[in-house]
Amino acid sequence: MSGKSLHSVCRWTFNAGKGGFVPANIRPAWAADQLSTAGVIGLVKEKIIPRLPEHVQLGYEVHYDTEINEENAAEVADALIDAGMYLAMITPGAHSHFGYGGIASLDPKERKAAEELGIGTVDLAYGPMRKAWHPDPDLAPTLVLWNGSYGYDLATVGIRQMYQNLKESIAGLCKYEEKAGGLMYIGIEPKPNEGHPAMLIPTVASALLLFHRLQEEFGVSKKKKGVNKEFGHTEMIGLDHVYDTVEELDNDGMVHMHLNSQGYNDGIILGGPGKYDIDHGTRVNGMNIAIAGLLAEAGFNRWKGHDMLVRPYDNEEQGIDRIIRSILSWEACAKAAEEVNTKELMAVLSARETAKAEDIMRAAVVTAQKYFDEMYKG
User: Fold this and answer.
1) Where do the DSSP E strands lie in 11-70?
2) Gap between the Cα atoms of 101 and 240, Å rounded
3) pLDDT at site 1
4) What is the phi/psi pair of residue 277, to 5°?
5) What is the pairing mode between strands 5-10 and 304-306?
6) From the CB of residue 313, how many other CB atoms can be counted at a distance below 10 Å?
7) What is the rounded distance in angstroms from the CA atom of residue 41 to the CA atom of residue 355?
8) Cα 106 to Cα 126: distance, rounded to the nearest angstrom
9) Residue 226 banded pLDDT, cuts 50, 70, 90
10) Rounded to a whole number, what is the distance in angstroms from the first to the last CA of the chain?
């Protein structure tokens, strides 16, 4: 496996603006008709890679069929190879097409169309995008199923059938991918809400349980199946993404990561439980240091995606800077985690001297910020 630290950037981060209550054209050079999916890779090669430490390897994340499709896939693959990047994650953009449950839908026409979108995603990944995979099979891309279309807003007995539809459809997709080669990782990205008030897979535990049921009911192996760990989605629902990490690692179910944040836990950026999905970049804080320590202890070394939105008031230059800051913030937390004296930490915790444990973690945050400053300036 690669000794590099693996990060990935997302096509959807590079947008002209959110619109709605904030400007839709604050970054005109990033408008869809000005910046293509392949063009983003060129921008990353020119503006981001030179500002990262040499030990950082970048990958790329895309939605099928809005950001990548049969028409532009060859161009995207060539651009990745030229930039020294790899396909890290691909996901069916079901939320762009289906508003009534997608593959869980009670409408058979919608469900069939959503299933076909998933099949197309697998075909594209194993087809024109195959040459852009990392050569190490342990770093093959993840097929992520975001649950944004697997939702509802009516309390009826039909919810149980939606869940059954979901299981059957995901089982079919897993078996299709296995026949295609069985090389990809497959993960579900939990979220408590958006794009529906209620979702079928709201938590990490929900996703882990679903794959357990797929094995029992349909004989789908749990190998290389699990969760796209999304820090911010756990924060939105007021749960603990440190414990989520323990669950994911304990079940060998962490296949991909999204390192964004709602921001509330660093004492500076506002957000958190009960707020909408803000998608800040990675923050330097104690929770991220703890998670980095858990990952290092478990030997996890796969792609860490930055599923973030630059601020609605950022121009293009500031947006690029946000992405760089997010990557460096994680690297700083990971480096600080390496220096935490775990033996001392466990000793004070065993002795119930939790104030001293707090001191150790606070010192690690200070260390991480110093590392960030060094990397950012360097």
Assistant:
1) 56-64
2) 27
3) 56
4) -75, 100
5) parallel
6) 10
7) 46
8) 30
9) very high
10) 28
